[in-house]
Amino acid sequence: MTAFETMKKHYQDRSLAALEWKKNGGKVMGYICNNVPEEMIMAAGFLPVRLSGDPWEGTELAEGYRIPYPRVGFVETMINKLLTEKFDYLDYLVVPHSRDEVWRMWTQLHFVPELDPQIRLPEMYFYDNLHTTFYTASVYNRDRALELKAQLEKWSGKKMKDEDLAKAIDITNENRMLLKKVAALRAADPPRISGREALQMIGSSMFMPKEAHNRLLKDFLKDADSLPAKTGVRLFVESSPLDNLQFYEVIESSGAVVVGEDNCWGNRYSDTPIEMTVNPFESIVDRYLKKSPCPRIFPLQKRIDYCVKNTVASNAKATLIHVYEGDNAQAWEAPDQIKALKAAGMPAKRVKNQPYLLSDSDKDELKTEIKEFIEAL
User: Fold this and answer.
1) d(CA 307, CA 295)
2) pLDDT, tens digit, for every residue of 1-15?
3) Is 257 helix (H, G, I), strand (E, B) or coil?
């Protein structure tokens, strides 16, 4: 099995590494959203595993615990998988104060054990943080990170040492550096990997031990020069969280290739390394405060500038903006992004209110829309 085939396998079966970790006596900590510091989880001795939704997962049980706010498919299906114990390999779960739909998960899940004691959920922790990079936010977020550190120490039964944090930083920084090399293969002219392949390589890093993933990336990159060129119109994708391949499959079967994206399951995940400052803990806190901005970040201009900068850097010919049904955070910034992209000479099109699970007719309609956009360039 090649390195890419192994990463693809872990992307498809996202419990594979966690179950092996458990088999060997380790404990698994789930987390939601890349605003949770993986390095602290690793330093505490746990395997960090990012939770994802599943377009083919039902939402029947989640419906019973839903609060009356707009629903987003990746959140609802995550809740359903937790309630149906499909994440039963998790020992603990960290839910951050991320976009509204994510932090509401905490509200929904918090009362489940009281309402239905038969449902087994992992022990949960709410990780609060502010959504700005101002000084006041840095002080507040540092205090919350200290509380998270204390909780991880309580769960692990041991103090978190600076050398353990430093080792975790070295591992995750190497992973980010290798993933940036993967990103460069996409931005190359011609591209050497597709958007679908890239999402699987990036996503698999969130489901398996980072050291093992680093070895796979190194093995894959050894043969990068011999990879066949990809053909198609170069597109950049600005998107709601894409934890599955459906949208890219439609794009790349429509005569295009995705050469970059602004998406927390894509290149944005590895954008910002940790720079060592005062000590490992402070360096981690600083990185998660100042990392590449996601849709929850204020002011909005940070998001607009980030989108335009990365679109131009990818040498894309145009940008597609993809927004899931109910994803208000992504919808809020889309008009300003389109305006800024067009001002920079970059054609942009929004495909809005996309269902989390695409039916065959949805795919046909979307493919027609994308082909018309490409032909008009």
Assistant:
1) 11
2) 999 999 999 999 999
3) strand
Q: How many whole angstroms separate alpha carbon 269 and alpha carbon 33? A: 10
The tens digit of pLDDT for each residue in 229-276 reads 999 999 999 999 999 999 999 999 999 999 999 999 999 999 999 999
Does position 359 have pLDDT exceeding 90, yes or no?
yes
CA 9 to CA 23: how far, in whole Å? 19
Q: Indicate whether 335 pLDDT > 80.
A: yes
**Multiple choice CATH, 1-377, 3.90.1860.10, 3.40.1160.10, 3.40.50.300, 3.40.50.11900:** 3.40.50.11900
Nearest CA to 171 among 179, 181, 182?
179
- Sheet with 123-127, edge to edge strand ranges: 47-50, 28-31, 92-96, 123-127
| One-letter amino acid for residue 189 of the chain | D
- Please list, in sequence order, all residues whose beta carbon lies within 8 angstroms of the beta carbon of residue 190, skipping any fewer than 6 positions away: 229, 230, 231
CA dihedral 208, 209, 210, 211 (to 10 degrees): -130
* Peptide bond preceding 190 in cis form (omega within 30 of 0): yes
Domain ranges of the chain: 1-377
**Overall pTM surpassing 0.85 (yes/no):** yes
pLDDT in the model for residue 353? 86
Strands (E) across the chain are located at 28-31, 47-50, 92-96, 123-127, 233-239, 256-262, 318-324, 348-354
Measured between alpha carbons, how far is 236 from 240 in angstroms, rounded to an integer? 13
